[in-house]
Each structure stands twice: as structure tokens, then as C-alpha cells.
Design a protein that fits this description.
The complex is a heterodimer of chains A (about 600) and B (about 375). With about 600 residues, chain A is of the alpha+beta class. Chain A has 4 domains: about 220 residues, Histidine kinase-like ATPase, C-terminal domain (Heat Shock Protein 90, 2-Layer Sandwich); about 70 residues, Orthogonal Bundle (Helicase, Ruva Protein, domain 3), CATH 1.10.8.50; about 100 residues, no CATH class; about 180 residues, Ribosomal Protein S5, domain 2 (2-Layer Sandwich), CATH 3.30.230.10. Chain A has 19 helices and 17 strands. In chain A, helix 3 runs parallel beside helix 6 and helix 13 packs across helix 14. The longest helix of chain A is centred in the C-terminal third of the chain and has 52 residues. Chain B has 2 domains: about 140 residues, Orthogonal Bundle (Arc Repressor Mutant, subunit A), CATH 1.10.10; about 170 residues, Dna Topoisomerase Vi A Subunit, Chain: A, domain 2 (3-Layer(aba) Sandwich). The mean pLDDT of chain B is about 90. The two termini of chain B are about 40 Å apart. In chain B, the strands form 6 sheets. In chain B, strands 10-7-13-12-14-15 form a 6-stranded mixed beta sheet, with helices on both faces. In chain B, strands 9-8-11 form a 3-stranded antiparallel beta sheet. The chains are: A alpha+beta (about 600), B alpha/beta (about 375). At the A-B interface, helix 18 of A face helix 1 and helix 2 of B. The structure holds adenosine-5'-triphosphate (ATP) and magnesium ion. The site of adenosine-5'-triphosphate (ATP) has 23 residues of chain A, from helix 3 and helix 5.
């Protein structure tokens, strides 16, 4: 991703992604049609998840001219019953790249803020048609936008905006794009099918261009709780992020303009009457506790400048030189730069330095990160070689790098908080698998939360065997944050783990009818590409996958040997039914009897295994 | 013309028949009773595993020890072979009642009419051995015969007992190719003979030579071709000739370790048939070709093979080879590591064996 960031500076993001659309999965008409479907369906599911709405998503693909051979233009429409998007955000959400609401640390299908826009962009490039977005946030009024994207400027162009009365909430996006359904069809059907397996609480309908309808109703009636946003974990941080966080936490020296002076006067209750410098200071002392931080800073400055409001209006603060305890300002009246000394013993001095130098390291850590309390923060400071009350604002570049490195290396942080994750849960997963595969045997497991480089993740897995499952398994269904992964199978970590398993050890032989489902949930899935198709093999994730699969495989083995025993018992019963009558027949003649012995009760008797 | 002696014999044969039928009926009734009482029937089969085969010095043959395996119809892995065994008993019962004979191969095919599958003939052969062990009677007693036939020639009158031929008589020197030893002959009554000795010879070629050279007349003998290792029917007949007609038996084989063992099996049986008695002629004598004869008669030889040598070592640990000529000849074979066939005598003329060698050996046999 760092190379992408660098390029941002030279060209507009839209332009960049136009040039690099292969990366995002828009390489050819087949792949693009599939990716576009995915991006819109996933946005709809994300939006519903976030608001705890049972999703009802309707996907339709129609050829503009059905007679034409593929590849040809299609109209792709995805409609949902989600929260919709507020009127003013619609053009931004769909008309600019890197605009998204999902950057915060929580689990969602979308990550980059460019999926929908890329699809729209692709449609626009191949067919030169605008995107049609209909959105209603209240179920009464619906906005309808026709948008084009200005690729050079990364800006939406609104062709048309109307409103209409409706009765349902939700959002619908419709684009026109060049696609190849003949080739992409089976993947899209797979995608819809597999998506409905991992979102058993959703209803998904797909009308395909050939007039076929695929409908998957929801099969579970409880929704996994929506994921929450949380602060980052120290292990997942880099220098850039620390800088951004520092800016957010630091108070700048307020500009002392008319509005500011007005505010200070008001807060001191001096809106009407003018007081001398000392009068102002007395008043401020009395009200200190009720004053806001910017007001306190202005008062502190005044204390060193020894100025009243009138004088204050005629200067501009230039610099606060904390080490030399000097305050520099520009005097408009004399048109020259002046300075005053600051008394380090004064409480105003502390107020000023605190503002300029930012928070202490320990405060910064406990406020900015999850899982860091005051004592951990102190321990860390020692580990990293900083004073605990080191001011963040005084950090040099080198110190920032050292801080960032130490944050990665320090091992006593608690592991990341997984509460921001939204795994599907064992019960819905099992229900979904049973409904989908109609197996003879099914087992699922949710591994405890774990983390890789500061990002929490949870692995869920399921195994199903026999029943209506087709032979030739294991058939592996891979998911990440409830997205099915269908392309680039070869290089995926899940497949690596599955392929490493010696199934013979678990009594699974030949061309077994069995299915493995794996679901990785994380605030950041380590995808190998922006196309979100395969997961890189992070050691921590691989380990969890292995443990999960081992657990399930052992359950499967236990089932298989039981199944083997049941098969044997059946076979045995058949043996008795076959041979006992013969024995009866032979013994009757040997014994010189005419009537056969009554051996029937032997057949009914529960036969005990005697494996000698 | 039925003499008292033959009446006796007939009665004896009938008794034997009846014994088999009774034994089969007993087993059948037990199985029938078990089934009727809601019990899974089982049969006890004397174990034929190596550990249960012991040499009985008194009987001078290998016999089975006391251990037996239970074959239960309750055990699903034994159910099939239990049924096969029951079928065979049933089949043998019919054969015996109807006085019909059948071969090992017949048995294999007959089973298919009763939904009893044998995987191959060796499986059905094994079940036959099981039944032999259960009844401790050779398969010939319940009318199942091997394919291999050996032959007999000499002045011996017999009277058939098989259906359709009952009472018919025959002299076994009427046809120069000899007579095949099959079920009709083994069950026939041995009426009388002028012979004073039985010569069992390993090879068909030499048998023909002996007939041509009138060894039967010259040496008052009955000549039997064992065709290699003597089949059980032949051994039964040898035993009957010895026991019923009072004839001594001598054996003439190739001069190698296999020949020596052919003679031993006639004398004291094989480990394969340790479950059976009445197949041995403990007084039979091996008269040649000995290892020591090779030197003595300056016979052309061929070197022993690896497997010949291994066989020598194997037999050295057999209790029957611990003394007498058995031990001595084995040692010499191992020392000279060469062997000679019966035909080797032809170097000195085709009739050398009957003119020179045989008389010497017959003379020697008297003192053995
Ligand atoms: N169906 C929808 N209902 C409500 N909001 C939506 C819907 N579709 C998109 N949005 C909003 O538009 C934003 C942009 O969507 P986009 O697909 O471009 O990015 P993303 O989903 O955040 O990330 P990604 O690039 O990984 O898909 C989303 O973050 C979301 O806030
Ligand atoms: Mg998206």
C-alpha cells in the first residue's frame, strides 16, 4: 500500500485507480462484472449489518441487447432495505474514491472506500453511461441521483437530482457496464450461493440475464451483534498513524482575533465593561475552573504580555519558545517584532507549555490506544527509554520512530480487543451449513480471538460430510469478513492448511463427499491484493486455522469410525440374513428332519460384535 | 462267488460308510438343535497350525495335538466359512448316501448351485480339509477324490463295490498300461493275489519299463506308479495291500532329497495330513536310489540346486530323519551335493535297472 500512497501525491486518486484498475479486480469484462456485483452486494450487506437490519438484497443483471454476443453491455442493479445514505453524502460516497465510512477499526466487508466507485468508474469508462442511485433514509422521501465521475478531479458530476415519495427505506444502485455473463455467470451464481451461506440471516435474490431466478431466504432469525469501533492496538501502529493521532490530541495556540477576544470577554463576564489588566487577571483567577482551554491559553498569554483587551487586539503572537522561556510577538503599532520573558514558576507558564508540547507520553498512550492502562504506559516508557511525562510535542523525528518501533516490540500489552469483531457464531454457521449441504454430519468451531500485528481476528470453521454433498472433496468454501473468496485459490492460506492435512489419518479416503467452510474475521484481513480474493499466510492466522481444522477433523474421524461401525453392523445383519437360512437348510437334511429349525429369533437378536 | 473273507470285508466297508453318515448326522443334529434353541451353532475344528502338529513316535506319523479352534456362526467373520463347512457336510452326506463320487473341482462348482460362493478352488479345498479334520476321516471316505491319478499293475483280483458295478471282478494284469487308481479301485474289495511284494515307483516312465520287463512276474510283485508324491487314494490302497493282503511295500525313487521324502510320506504321512490316520504304511521301505548308490553304481549325476540344499536342511530338523538310513542318506546328499535320477541307469543299458539294480535291492529289502 505504501507505493499507492506515494503516487497519490502526483495524480488524483481516481486517475490512479483508473490506471491501476487491474488491482481492484476490473481487469476484463468477465472479472469486472463479477467484481461489480460483489462490491454493491457487499456494500448493501455492510450497511444493513451496521444498523442491525436483516438484509433483503435484490440483485439483477439484464443485457441491454440480449441478442448480442458476449462481452456486451449489461445493466446491473443492486437494491437493499438498508439505512440509505443522507442526501448530501450520496455524490461523495459514489463519486469519489477513498470516500468511505469504514476506515475506523471495526470489522466490515468494505475496507478501502473505493469499491463502489471503482465499479461505477468501470461502467462509465466502458459504456459512457451515468450511475443511477436511489436512496431513502426515512422511508418517505427518496433521492434519485444521476452521477458521472470526473476522473481527473476525483469529483462527482451531478447530472440530475430529483426526489420522490416512497414507502420503503433503502438504497439502490444501478450501473451500465461492459460484461461477459456467459463466462462470469457461474462465478456470480457461486458468489450469491456462498454469500447466502455465510449470511444466513439475509435474504438474497438474483435475477440473471437469462431469466433465471435464484432466491435464498434467511434461515436464522438472530443477527450477529453489529461490530463496534475501537481504538487501535499498539502493535498495529506505524509512525504515520502516531503523527495523525498527535495532531488530533494536541491543542494549537489559538489565533487571537476579534471573535476570540469576544469569547474570552463573554466567558469572564466582561462583555460590556472594560477592566484593567490586573482586574482581568483577578477575574480570571476566580473563574479559572469554569474556563475552557483556549480561553485559559489566552489569559496565560496576557499574563506575560501584561496587556488588556485593547492592547491585545494590536499584536500577533509569533512563537512560544519554551526552552528559552521567551514569548515572541509582532506589534502592529510599531511594526516590529518584540519579546517578553516568561516566569517558569508561574502557573500560567505550565498552562502554556502543556498546550504547546502536547500531552505526556503516558496520557497519549492510555487515551489513544486500547488495552493500555497507566501502569503499562509507565512500564512501556521505561522499555522505550522515555520519561513517562515526556511531552509528545517535544518528540523529534528520530524519537517518533523509536516510539513506533518500541510499540511494536513491547510484549506486555494485552492482546487486541476482539469486541470490534463480528464473527457469524457457531450456531448460525452450523444451521446454514446443514440447510445448504444437507450433510449426514456437521461440526463447527469458533476459535478464541487472536491477533496478528495488532489486528484482532477470529477464525470460524465448519466441516460437513456425506448426505447430499457431491464426492471429490474436500470442497473448500473460504470467507473473510463474510465475503466469499472465489478467485486466486492457489495462493490462499486456508487452502495451504487444508492441503497439508493428511485426511487418511482421519479415516477420510478416496473421493469423499465433504465440505470445509472457513471464515476469518478481522479488522484488517491481510489480503494479497485490493481485489480481496486471497488471504496472505500470516503465521498467527495459519496457526488458528490449523488448530480449528484439527479439532474438526478429529470430530469427523470419530464420526467416520462410528459410521464405519454402523455400516459394518448393517453388513453383518445382512450376512446373518443370508447365511442362517442356509445353515438351517443344510442342518435339517443332515439331521434327517423335515421341518426347518426356528432360527428366526436369532436374526432379530441384537448381534454383539465378536472381532476375534 | 463270495467267500467268507469278502463278506467280512463288505461288512467292514458298509460299517465305514455308516460311521461317516452317523458322524455327519450327529453334527447336523447338533447344529439343528442349536438353531432351534435360539443359539448360534458352532463347530470345533482341530487346529492344523504348525504349533499343533506333533510327531507321534508310537504311531510313527505326524498327528494333530489337542488344540482346536471354535468356528462360530455368531462371529460374522466366521459365518461364511461356517456355512461353507455345513454345506460341504450336507453335500458329502448326499454323496455318501447316493454312493456317488466327486472331485475337488466338482465340489468347487457344485457349491454354486447353493449360493455358497468359494472364491477359488483353494478355498473349497481348505473347507474339505476342515471337514476331514472335524470327522478325522480322509475326504475319500466321504467320496471326494483328487484329480491326480496314479496307476497300478499286477496280478490282483478285485471286486467293485460302486453302484452299477457291484460284484463285478477284475484282474489288474489284464491291461499293459496299468489301471488308474480312482474311487472305484480304492473302494473295491481286494479279493486275492499271487504277488508277494508291492513295488511303488516314483515315475511313469519307469513304471512302463517295469511292466514291459515283466517285473510283476519275475519278482512276483504288484507295481504302482505314484506319479511323484503319492496321492491319498494311492496311499490308502498301499495301506490296504499291506494290511489286508499282507504284502510288504518297497519304494523306489529318484536319488535326491525329494525322492527320499516321497518314500517317507508313504511310510509315515505328511504334515498336511496330520489330521488323518490310516494313510500310512509304517513298514514301507525305501530301497533307493540312495545317495550312497550314486557312488556305488557310478551313476551320472547333476548338481543339487539351492532349493535341494535348503530342503535337506529343513528335513534335518524333522524328527523322522534323526536316525537310520533316513539320516545317513540325507547327510551324504548334503556332502556330495549331487543327485541322480532313476533313468540314470540307462547309461548301462535300458534294462540295467531291472536286471541288476532291482534284484540287489529286493534282496537287501529282506534284511531291512
Ligand atoms: N448500500 C449502501 N447503503 C448505505 N451506505 C452505502 C451503501 N453503499 C455504499 N455506502 C457508503 O458508501 C461508502 C463508499 O462505499 P465503497 O464501496 O466505495 O467503499 P467501502 O465499502 O467503504 O470500501 P471498499 O472499497 O472496501 O468497498 C461506504 O463506506 C458507505 O458508507
Ligand atoms: Mg464497498
Amino acid at each position: 500500500m505504501s507505493s499507492i500512497k506515494e503516487k497519490f501525491n502526483q495524480i488524483s486518486p481516481s486517475e490512479f485507480f483508473y490506471r491501476n484498475r487491474d488491482l481492484a479486480g476490473f481487469s476484463n469484462p468477465t472479472r469486472s462484472l463479477y467484481t461489480a456485483v460483489r462490491e454493491f452486494v457487499e456494500n448493501s450487506l455492510d450497511a444493513c449489518d451496521q444498523k442491525g437490519i436483516f438484509p433483503d438484497v435484490h440483485l439483477s443483471i439484464k443485457a441491454i441487447d440480449p441478442e448480442k454476443p458476449d462481452p456486451k453491455p449489461y445493466i446491473l442493479t443492486v437494491k437493499d432495505n438498508g439505512p440509505g445514505i443522507e442526501t448530501k453524502h450520496v455524490p461523495l460516497a459514489f463519486g469519489t474514491v477513498l470516500y468511505g465510512s469504514k476506515f475506523g477499526l471495526k470489522q466490515a466487508r468494505g475496507m478501502f472506500g473505493l469499491g463502489a466507485t471503482m465499479a461505477i468508474l468501470y461502467g462509465q469508462i466502458t459504456t459512457n453511461k451515468p450511475v443511477l442511485v436511489k436512496s431513502s433514509t426515512d422511508g418517505k422521501i427518496q433521492d434519485e441521483f444521476e452521477l458521472l465521475l470526473d476522473i481527473q478531479k476525483n469529483k462527482p458530476v451531478i447530472l440530475k437530482h430529483t426526489t420522490k415519495e416512497v414507502t420503503k427505506r433503502g438504497l439502490s444502485v444501478s450501473i451500465c457496464l461492459e460484461g461477459d455473463y456467459a463466462k462470469a455467470g457461474s462465478k456470480i451464481k457461486d458468489y450469491v450461493y456462498e454469500t447466502s451461506l455465510i449470511t444466513p440471516y439475509a435474504t438474497i435474490t438474483f435475477d440473471d440475464p437469462k431469466g433465471e431466478k435464484f432466491h435464498y431466504s434467511k434461515i436464522v432469525n438472530e443477527m450477529p451483534p453489529p461490530p463496534t469501533i475501537i481504538r487501535p492496538h499498539a502493535h498495529g501502529i506505524d509512525v504515520e498513524t502516531i503523527r495523525r493521532m498527535m495532531v488530533e490530541s494536541q491543542f494549537e495556540i489559538p489565533t487571537i482575533d476579534d471573535a476570540m477576544v469576544e469569547k474570552v470577554r463573554k466567558d469572564l463576564g466582561l462583555a460590556k465593561n472594560n477592566l484593567s489588566f490586573t482586574g482581568i487577571m483577578d477575574k480570571a483567577k476566580k473563574r479559572w475552573k469554569t474556563l475552557s482551554r483556549p480561553v485559559r491559553v489566552v489569559i496565560s498569554l496576557m499574563s506575560f504580555l501584561k496587556m488588556d483587551f485593547d492592547k491585545l487586539n494590536k499584536i500577533r503572537i509569533d512563537d512560544i519558545d519554551v526552552p528559552n522561556k521567551k514569548l515572541y510577538y509582532w506589534d502592529f503599532g510599531d511594526s516590529q517584532s518584540k519579546s517578553v520573558d516568561m516566569d517558569p514558576e508561574s502557573s500560567y507558564y505550565k498552562q502554556l507549555t502543556g498546550t504547546v508540547q502536547g500531552e505526556t507520553l503516558t496520557t497519549f498512550l492510555t487515551k489513544g490506544f486500547q488495552r493500555i492502562g497507566p501502569s503499562t504506559a509507565v512500564k512501556f516508557a521505561e522499555f522505550a527509554g522515555f520519561k513517562p511525562d515526556k511531552r509528545m510535542g517535544t518528540m523529534t523525528n528520530e524519537e517518533l520512530v523509536r516510539l513506533s518501533d518500541s510499540l511494536q516490540k513491547f510484549e506486555d500489552f494485552l492482546s487486541p480487543d476482539p469486541s470490534c469483531l463480528a464473527p457469524l457464531g457457531e450456531e448460525p454457521l452450523e444451521k446454514g451449513m446443514k440447510k445448504f449441504f444437507k450433510p449426514d454430519f456437521c461440526a463447527v468451531i469458533q476459535r478464541p480471538a487472536s491477533a496478528y500485528s495488532g489486528f484482532p481476528f477470529i477464525v470460524e470453521m465448519g466441516i460437513a460430510y456425506g448426505g447430499e454433498i457431491r464426492p471429490g472433496g474436500p470442497h473448500v468454501y473460504r470467507y473473510a469478513n463474510r465475503i466469499p473468496l472465489l478467485y486466486d485459490e492457489g495462493s490462499d492460506v486456508v487452502l495451504k492448511v487444508v492441503n497439508d492435512t493428511d485426511w487418511g489419518r482421519y479415516k477420510v479416503k478416496g473421493e469423499p463427499p465433504f465440505v470445509i467452510v472457513s471464515h476469518i474475521c478481522s479488522t484488517r484481513i491481510p489480503y494479497k491484493t485490493v481485489g480481496k480474493e486471497n488471504v496472505a499466510d500470516r503465521q498467527e492466522i495459519e496457526r488458528e486455522l490449523r488448530l480449528g481444522l484439527q479439532f474438526l477433523s478429529r470430530k469427523l474421524a470419530a464420526y467416520m469410525s462410528k459410521r464405519g461401525q454402523a455400516d459394518m453392523a448393517k453388513k453383518r445383519a445382512n450376512l446373518y440374513a443370508k447365511y442362517l437360512p442356509l445353515i438351517a437348510q443344510f442342518s435339517t437334511e443332515l439331521a434327517g428332519k423335515t421341518k426347518e429349525p426356528n432360527y428366526k429369533k436369532l436374526l432379530e437378536e441384537e448381534i454383539i460384535v465378536d472381532d476375534k | 462267488m463270495t467267500t467268507n473273507k469278502s463278506k467280512d470285508r463288505k461288512q467292514k466297508a458298509n460299517e465305514k460308510q455308516q460311521n461317516i453318515i452317523d458322524a455327519l448326522k450327529d453334527h447336523g443334529a447338533k447344529v439343528y438343535g442349536d438353531l432351534d434353541n435360539g443359539q448360534f451353532p458352532k463347530l470345533s475344528i482341530p487346529s492344523r497350525s504348525v504349533s499343533n502338529i506333533v510327531y507321534d513316535k508310537k504311531l510313527r506319523q505326524y498327528i494333530l495335538g489337542n488344540s482346536a479352534a471354535l468356528r462360530s456362526s455368531r462371529n460374522s467373520s466366521q459365518l461364511r466359512s461356517f456355512t461353507q463347512l455345513m454345506w460341504l457336510a450336507f453335500f458329502a452326506n448326499r454323496l455318501t448316501h447316493e454312493k456317488k463320487s466327486s472331485t475337488l473341482r466338482d465340489v468347487y462348482y457344485s457349491s454354486q448351485a447353493f449360493e455358497i460362493e468359494f472364491e477359488d478352488q483353494s478355498e473349497s479345498d481348505n473347507i474339505i480339509v476342515d471337514l476331514e479334520a472335524v470327522l478325522s476321516k480322509p475326504r475319500e471316505d466321504f467320496h471326494i477324490f483328487p484329480e491326480e491319478r496314479s496307476s497300478i499293475f499286477g496280478d490282483l483280483n478285485i471286486e467293485y463295490t460302486i453302484p452299477g458295478y457291484e460284484g463285478k471282478t477284475m484282474n489288474l494284469s489284464n491291461h499293459p498300461d496299468g489301471y488308474a487308481i480312482g474311487p472305484s479301485l480304492t473302494t473295491a474289495e481286494l479279493v486275492d493275489t499271487s504277488a508277494e511284494i508291492v513295488i511303488a515307483i516314483e515315475k511313469g516312465g519307469l513304471f512302463t519299463r517295469f511292466v514291459e520287463e515283466q517285473v510283476d512276474k519275475k519278482f512276483k510283485s504288484i507295481i504302482i506308479n505314484t506319479g511323484g508324491q503319492a496321492p491319498r487314494s494311492t496311499r490308502t490302497l498301499l495301506k490296504r495291500l499291506h494290511d489286508e493282503m499282507g504284502l510288504p511295500v518297497i519304494v523306489l525313487t529318484d536319488g535326491d532329497v525329494y525322492g527320499e521324502h516321497i518314500a517317507m510320506v508313504i511310510k509315515s504321512g505328511s504334515a498336511n495330513a496330520a489330521h488323518l490316520r490310516d494313510l500310512t504304511v509304517p513298514d514301507a521301505k525305501w530301497v533307493g536310489v540312495w545317495a550312497t548308490d550314486i557312488e556305488k553304481f557310478k551313476l551320472p549325476t547333476i548338481p543339487m540346486t539351492e532349493s535341494d540344499i535348503k530342503r535337506c536342511h529343513d528335513l534335518q530338523s524333522d524328527p523322522r530323519y534323526q536316525e537310520g538310513i533316513w539320516k545317513k542318506e540325507l547327510d551324504v546328499f548334503l556332502k556330495i551335493k549331487r543327485k541322480a535320477e532313476l533313468e540314470a541307469f540307462s547309461k548301462y543299458g535300458l534294462t540295467n535297472i531291472t536286471d541288476k539294480y532291482l534284484p540287489q535291492k529286493l534282496e537287501l529289502a529282506k534284511s531291512m
